[in-house]
Amino acid sequence: KPEDSLILNKAMLEIGHGGGRRFRHGSYDHQVLVAWLSAGVPAPVADDPVVVGLALEPKERNYLVDQGQQLRVVARYSDKTMRDVTRTARYDALNEGVATVTEDGYITAVGKGQAAVMVRYGGQAKVSLVTSPFRDNVDLAGFQPNNFIDEHVMARWKRLGTRPSTPCTDAEFIRRAYLDSIGTLPTTGKVEAFLKSTRPDKRDQLVDELLGLTGDPKRDLHVGSWSAYWALKWGDLLRNNRKQTGVGGMWSLSNWIRRSLRQNMPVDQFVREIITARGSTLKNG
Question: Does pTM surpass 0.70?
Answer without folding.
Answer: no
